[in-house]
Amino acid sequence: MSKSLVIVESPAKAKTINKYLGTDFDVEASLGHVKDLPKNRIAVDFDHDFETELVVIPGKEKVLDALRKKAAKANAIFLAPDPDREGEAIAAHLFEELGGSRDKKGKYKYTGAEIRRVTFNEITQKAVKAAFEHPRDIDWNLVDAQQTRRVLDRIVGYQISPLLWDKVRRGLSAGRVQTVALRLIVERERAIKAFIPVESWTIGAHLSAAQPPAFDARFIGIDGEKLEVPNQQQADLIVEGLAGAAWTVAQVKKTEVSRKPFPPFTTAKLQQDAFQKLHFSSKRTMALAQRLYEGIELGTEGSIGLITYMRTDSTQVSTDALAEVREIIAASYGKEFIPSAPNVYKSKSDAQGAHEAIRPTSAARHPDQVQRYMQEDEFKLYRLIWQRFVASQMVPALFDRTTVDIAAQAVNGKRYDYRVTGTVLKFEGFLKAYDVSKDARDEEDDELKRKLPPLEEGQKLTLKALKPEQHFSEPPPRFNDGTLVKVLEERGIGRPSTYAAILSTIQERQYVTKTGGKAGKFVPTEIGMVVCDLLVVNFPYIFDPDYTAKLEQELDSVEDGTEKWTTLMGDFYQHFEKELRHAEIHMENVKRMEKPTDQVCEKCGSPLVLKWGKFGSFYACSTYDKKDPDSCNFTKENVIDLPDLETADTQDTAAGEEYCPNCNRVMVLKRGRFGQFMACTGYPDCKTTRQLTATKATAPIPLDEKCPKCDRNLVLRTGRFGEFVACSGYPKCKYVKQNFIGVTCPKCGEGEIAEKKARRGNLFYGCSEYPKCDFTSNNKPIAEQCPQCGSAYLVQKDLKSGTVLVCPNNKKSVDEEKPKRGRKKVAGEVAPAVVKCDYSRPAPELTPVPVEQAEVAQAVQ
Question: Which residues are identified as catalytic?
Fold first, then answer.
């Protein structure tokens, strides 16, 4: 009997859905996208309405073949990727590959079974079955919106990145949204450097009443007029005027204030709160949320989707979920915590109305009940989502706020005004379920710490001490994952589903790095600032934050069907092409940059110029001429004025500690097959690692020595097997300075024997003409003929009894003529006669042969 074929993206999702649908359905996974633009060309036809060429992603041919075979036997095909633009695009590509098509009038045609689309916001039995009862056709407006974004990103990436390769260095990339995010970080860094602190003073008064406790009041003005205290001179005058003043309570004002609960999570708010409360990066948060959405094994219940779809900008909640959570609140906290009607929150104007907020699929599934089935970080995130959702449907928290105005009547006739405010929590409300993050505390939260004694108007107070304190305004803080996502969301730059990828990309490209500690603040690197400046100057319209936000609104219009995607592309490309042509001519060539400086060459006294190399900027002598071998080749590092990443967040970092960039646990030193590395202590839950050869450590150090092959400078590099000296012109010149021992190769007679290091760190000796000559020896060859058998060389061995010279043909020494393991014997080949010689004698006092400065990296050969 034929079955219905259901196709989703991931095997985990397929497993969860399969148990809900039963034996009449065959659920398979496409493993993500099956078609995309080819990687080797732009594949966009600018002359024919931006027509795109989509190809099957390499490696997905077998997946599609298997799906086609199952589709040929199926009585119906249901496409069930995620309910967003990207999921709709995956469904459309599967639709086309499995035999679906549309004519010019929009009528559907099928070469086999009918193909329909199903969507659900949560993977539960009820939601899945309801979706299959109401299948629909593919929404081509959603597909067009996704295709437009993909084409926009392809045009920017494939036409601007080559410019950066030509003007700066290979391997760089430009992104339509990532560049704007980088721009925000760079501009914030420059604002910090340009910031000028402003001085101010506070004059606190420590007072006591008839009953404890004592409290602190703040100065607000004189004779009813507010007054700022800008310097110490003004502060001293106020302190002097308060000498002998009479302190009394002028007014006591009591009010009840409420604090409303927060709405349930959207994608952006989840990333912000997960960073503030759990110290998870955006990438980590979305990976964990994906697992919770697709399904967690809950013992005998099997795989259950624990949260609704995690890529959403909507705050609306289904009627069934509201009814359930109200029952949970009444049973767990009491009826007084339930509002008379469900709380409704306003979503953004461009939010997708068909989506829900991120919430538990069942509020009855308390985090403590499922904790034993989950990994630590999964549990933490689920608990956060559960608490936020439950709290969103509770009543506001109530506070009694007391504001006390205090008058200090001075001897000089002036009245110095002070004020103190204290707040007492009267009713917990939603705070019973959800604790406000420390990073989100405002003045109202600080008032909770301030307790006041009973005070009445006209009551006399006693001054215990005046506290004049100097303050300086602080620069704007650097962005971290949470605050950068918040700014991107507020300014409408990108979509919530893209934030994690944006933050990951700018770090992977080494445009920004993170400070140490749990704060994890973004700091632009030198290359990041150079790339940002070049792109912003030469593409002022395309990389303007406001225009990027406007593009998002236009993409929403494409999704709604109110704007054609080709119209959007035409308007974009008109501006883009104009700026691209200008940039091709006028963009500064950083590779050829030679900026005059006021520094002087330490070698010849000539002026130094600032140049740009593969690893950043550096100073070089202005008299250097690569055609003149006698010219001055002095260079020195350009120390960039960037913050010390080890100490930039000392309040969050213990001495010597490093935190995981993914989950902010402590990183520890471990050793693997390729040496030492840093690993997250959260393994296997978090598998983040970092090689110890950091970018800064591997930057080549210029040497005062020329390459014998191309006359460029030699540099000291760090590779997998340690330091070595090589040509600065790599990869055009692959010269590596070798550690020769002064012995000609006995096998080929052309090369010289050099000391080398193997992968495991042990030393061996090999011919410099490798791979032409494969001579190797585990013992050091000595240029001395064997008097017994005539061998062209002896080898030096270190024994317990001392150092000896032995013939390489000695049966106990290394035998270079021994056939290689695994080598096949050629037909008719005669094995060479193995000469055995037992010559051995103590080594004389050998005169050391001068060796080169650095070891040869075997990996280079």
Answer: 309
